[in-house]
Amino acid sequence: MGGAFVAVADSVKAAVANPAGLTLIPISEIGVSSGRPWLGAGFGRQRFRVAGYVTEMDEARMDLPEATPGASGSVESTVFEAGLAAGVQLHPRVRLGGSLAWTRLRLDGQRLVAADGGQQEIAASVDADEGQLHATAGLLVILVGANARALPSVRLGVDYQPGFDWSARVTDGAGVDEIAVRRPSLVSVGVAWRFTDRWSFAAQGDVIRYGEVVDALHRNIGGAAAADFTLPNAVEPRFGTEFAAPLWCGCGIVRLRGGLHYRSPGTLLYEGADPVAARAFSRQSWRTVATLGASIFAEHFANALRLDLDSRNVFDGPELSFGIVWRF
């Protein structure tokens, strides 16, 4: 659903998106999926539920632009996370949640330049392998509907993830320096509207404090050297919808969903006079990421099974993910 999940939050993945939503899970749940690997489990009672998870949050590779003749290179990064979360129902309409997670960054990059004999040598490198412990807070409010399962219903979800720094090492001709790699603070606010047992809609805005990345750059290289770099805070909208219908055999339910995420470039922009830096840190465009998915859901007495197939990026992907969820 384009990632518009902060107000939906009705599965164990709420432990990451909005831990207050763990109280929407009617019984215990275990889920596993591929793509960006995920394993999570939630247990407890209606008013209080806990969950644990481990996942690969992100994996990326960026080829460095050839800002100077004969130069090249790349940076690869992977982010893993493991955490514990809890949700509590304070009132039939108000739920709170929090999580404590350990997030690990693996970073490896090199900048290559031309050397004698037509070969290339390493001019600079960066590497990191560090974890940080951080907390997340979530809120879920039922605005319309007597309870979480009433129809029609409107829910408001809010999730706050404070930013933090990883430490990385940069090696070049001048020696070895330690720099901060910033994960910026994130505030997500969303609304989920389910007006029939078949149709539901969700909208969400993610406020990303990219200005914290510029602050980290100032600490890394000094205020004067970083003065010409900018990266404004961004608000990224997400929209999603889901349609559910019973199978003709009466043996389950099929769900079809889709969504859009308008994603900011999230890259530094250089506005100074250095042509090499201007080429390396040029203006990038926002882009639209479309998602599609389908699920088959079947239940037998107090047990239920759901099979998922999703595409995280229809236009540039498809980045397929397969999942299975068991409720018992």
Characterization of the model:
It is a single chain. This protein is mainly beta. It is 8% helix and 61% strand. The chain has four helices and 18 strands. The strands form two sheets. It has a 14-stranded antiparallel β-barrel. It has a two-stranded antiparallel ribbon with strand order 12-15. Strand 16 and strand 17 form a beta hairpin. The protein is elongated. The two termini are 25 Å apart.
Strand line-up in the sheet with most strands: 1-2-3-4-5-6-7-10-11-13-14-16-17-18
Q: Major β-sheet, in short?
A: 14 strands, antiparallel, barrel
Rg over C-alpha atoms, rounded to the nearest angstrom: 22 Å
Quick one: how many beta strands? 18
Helix content: under 10%
Class of secondary structure makeup? mainly beta
Strand content: over 45%
Order of H and E elements: HEEEEEEEEEEEHHEEEEHEEE
What is the straight-line distance between the termini?
25 Å
Unreliable stretches covering 5 or more consecutive residues: none
Shape: elongated
Tally of helical runs: 4
Mean pLDDT: 92
Show the helix and strand layout.
Layout lengths: L13 H4 L11 E5 L4 E7 L3 E16 L8 E20 L2 E21 L5 E25 L8 E9 L2 E9 L2 E9 L2 E9 L4 E10 L2 H11 L1 H4 L2 E2 L3 E13 L6 E11 L5 E2 L4 H6 L6 E14 L2 E9 L8 E8 L1
Antiparallel strand pairs: 1-2, 1-18, 2-3, 3-4, 4-5, 5-6, 6-7, 6-8, 7-10, 8-9, 10-11, 11-13, 12-15, 13-14, 14-16, 16-17, 17-18
